[in-house]
Each structure stands twice: as structure tokens, then as C-alpha cells.
Amino acid sequence: MLAPSDQLDGISGAALQMQRELQWFKEVESIVPPIYKDAKNLDRKKPSEVFSQQHANLVKEGEKWMKEIATSSSFVAALIVTIMFAAAFTIPGGNNDKGAPIFLDDPLFMVFIISDSISLFSATTSVLMFLGILTSQYAENKFLTRLPTKLILGLSALFISIAAMMIAFCAALAILLNKSSTKVVMIPIILLACVPVTLFALLQFPLLVNIFISTYGPGIFDRNIQRWY
């Protein structure tokens, strides 16, 4: 049982193709008479057994696809965790004689602390999600919602951590370059800081949206289907 080719067009990745195949199988299973669900063919195999046999290679390809994305993304997220953890203890401007931050009363300092914390926690969440993907059992039913949901959460948290990291970077520079003679330098720096966030959005958002719609969007059949019994 294979989904129509027009349903598979535009689906990127073997894991999402496997998810679409499972969705088709579940939809068809829900509209056929119950007696056919456990019926056996000439080879004495049930529909679910035939489905598993025909999609064994796609499950392996989906596992490989998911692990490749999780491995590369977790490396980036772990790097952000390391950077932001170090930045939290390397306060812009340093501390005074009492150990308090010199720019503690500066509103930009609070922006730095909040964005640094958000970036650190989001990156940590992303790492945990991707580790969950790498250590998951790749049974075929896991491709329906569990694995795609982990990928959605991991990529979303990674995007938030990158955006927050750039905000923390701009806030730190704004604190250090607070003089009127150096404020003009902030404009090109802020524009450059938007580049990695924009690139990540352009490269990963289409995949993220595709996974979200495929997992939580409308069903395969977008119209009411009359049951066969």
C-alpha cells in the first residue's frame, strides 16, 4: 500500500514519507469494515504485516535521515550551550570592588541577562530533543507523531536559542559602546547579527513548517468520507 505520488510530492526526507504512508494506512484502516483489518491474504499475512514488510527499507532510510539532522543540529545546539554558559559568567564591563556588575542598573544589561538565559535554556532543550531522537527506538509507528514532534521541538528551540544569542551579543556590544561617538557602529553590527538568524529561518523554516503541517495539519482526506459499512 503506497500513498499516491501526488501526496508524496514536496515531502522532504524519508521520515516524512514514512509518516505519510502511515497516515494513509491509518485512514484506510478507519474506513474499511473491521473484518478486513485482520483478514489474511494468500500468503497468510495481515494488512499490517504486509505494510511492515513493504516499508522496511523506508523505515531504515527514515532512521538515517532523522539521525543525520539530529546529529548536525545537536552539535550546533551544544556549541551554543557552551558559549552562552561562558557568557553568563563573563559579564560586559566586569564587576566593581563589591563583586556586583558595573552596568547592573543599565536596562541593556537586563536584556543581555534575559536573552543569554533564554538562549542557554533553549539550546539545552534542543540538545535533549535531538538526543531523544538519536536514542529512540525506530519502530514504524514512532514515525507517525513521536519522532516528528521531537524534531519540531528541537528545531524550534534551536532557532530561539540562535535568535536570543544574537540579541545577547548586540546588547553586550551596546553596553560597551554606549558612547555617542561609537553608537554609529551599532547599526551595521545589528544588521550583521540578523544575518545568521535570517539564514537559519530561510534554510530550516520550510522543513519545520512541512513537518508541523504533516504532523498536526488536516488529515489525508480533506473531505468527509463515507464508511464502507
Keywords:
229 residues
Task: Write structural notes for this entry.
Keywords: Membrane, Transmembrane, Transmembrane helix. This is PGG domain-containing protein. It comes from Vitis rotundifolia (Muscadine grape). The protein has 229 residues and is mainly alpha-helical. The protein is built from eight helices and no strands. It has a domain at 66-216. Helix 2 crosses helix 5, helix 5 (56-88) packs parallel to helix 7 (146-176) and helix 7 (146-176) packs antiparallel against helix 8. The longest helix is centred in the N-terminal third of the chain and has 33 residues, at 56-88. The chain starts with a helix and ends in a 13-residue tail after the last helix. The model is unreliable at 4-10 and 223-229 (pLDDT under 50).
Tally of extended strands?
0
Major pleated sheet: none
Number of helices: 8
Helix content: 55-70%
Elements, N to C (H/E): HHHHHHHH
Strand content: under 5%
> For the residues shown, what is the average pLDDT?
81
| Computed CA radius of gyration, to the nearest angstrom | 24 Å
The coarse overall form would be elongated
* End-to-end C-alpha gap: 21 Å
Could you say which structural class the secondary elements and strand pairing correspond to?
Answer: mainly alpha
Low-confidence stretches: 4-10, 223-229
Quaternary structure state of the chains depicted = single chain
